[in-house]
Amino acid sequence: MTTIFHSGLSKDLSLILNDADDFNVIIQVGENQNTKEFYAHSVILRARSPYFKCAFSSNWISKKNNMIIFNKPNVTPTVFDIILKYIYTGELDLTKQSCEDILGLLVSSDELLIDELFNHVQDYLIEKQTSWVQKNFVLVLHTVFQLPSCKKLQDYCLESICEDPEPFISSKMFPSLDKNILFGLLKRDDLQVEEEIVAWDCLIKWGIEQTPGLGNKNSDRTKWNNENFEALKKTLNQFIPLIRFVGISSGSFFDKVQPYKAIIPHYIYEELEEFYCKKALSRTTILLPRRRQSRSLMSAIIKFRLANAISKWTDKNDLVTHSNDNKCKFNLIYSMSRDGSNGRTFYNKCNGQGPFVVLIRVQSNKIYGGYNPIGCTGGNKWLSSTESFIFSFENNQNIYNMKFGRVINSAYSVYDSSNYFFSFGDILYINGRNLNIGYNNGHYENIFGEKKILNIEEIEVFSVVKE
């Protein structure tokens, strides 16, 4: 049996980093007035980072008095201090760091090929800094789209925008969005604009800002000459075919699209005129309407992407993808904040509603839940089913660190009672105003770990109707 003493090792290496007098590397980071020198040991840097292993074996470095001199002007002192402590000790504390520095850490860990750190920072931004990421989508997108390995954060940003694009496209930063990112958004079928004219308006807004000679000083199209229209046409040439014109009403088309006739390719405009006259498409150059998500989910606990995950699980599909093909309709039948915290009320609201999903949000904002495929029977007994499952989400829209477990002893799937909230195999149940998890690991896959009693903030129940 091997005994592990990582704690002592980390402490000793920390002393080497902070107090060593035998360093052989001087790393100069930052630029202008924000610079700093760090002292390190090449053997440790080489062992912990493939980037440094390659750099110290090439002509990237210079030496002075047998001391390796290395410059990294594109890394700030704050970020490199975090990286160096991680390299030496394996420790990382991001709770007191600004989100800008954490984003810089993501970029730097990618460049230095420190995969473990890179993956952790990417997850941290998604899980712990959701609000900041959403308020700074343009900054984050412009950063992560320069990193091919940052696919998870790229997907998270794009999916979040598509789910609720209005705050993003109305932000002050939207007109500065990179053209490749805008192209990727407009081509998506799941961009959930209320009407397609919204996509057209935001494209025109972006195009005016991006076109030389237009912008704030020349945004009134009634004062444009032919050269102005030609310049805007050149800017938007690749984007116009991405607009789903068939989703624009005739009134909006003549009010908002027709005035820009000069920037629309002739073959597209001809087909549009025919469409608005005959209400039929005779050719295939115009894209069909975007795929709309059902807005029947009226939840204060979860977002649509989590509903999509639950929908797939009810369909016995354990693999959750990023598609929005929700095949279930979720109808809210019980809410603790609306209906009160009472087991009898819970039963009365759920009785006769068929299969349902229970959602529980606790004080940490973590979400727990379960699927009852039978519904309420009022028999005060255990219900048997092979299709029930339990789950948890880190927050209301993060699908990357969710946990999911199916029933393994179907005889104890769900306890049904007219005076009791619910119990999923005694691994997930309510006792008073508390949620108990992990107390019986024999009936469901153990996804919760140790036993916990958690304070409940909200409970919702949705009937599940397969469409």
TrEMBL record:
Residues 300-465 form the TLDc domain. Pfam families: BACK (PF07707), BTB (PF00651), TLD (PF07534). SMART domains: BACK, BTB. InterPro entries: BACK, BTB-POZ/Galectin-3-binding, BTB/POZ_dom, SKP1/BTB/POZ_sf, TLDc_dom. Residues 23-96 form the BTB domain. It comes from the Eukaryota. PROSITE patterns: BTB, TLDC. PANTHER family: BTB DOMAIN-CONTAINING PROTEIN-RELATED, HL07962P-RELATED. This is Serine-enriched protein. It comes from Rhizophagus irregularis (strain DAOM 197198w) (Glomus intraradices).
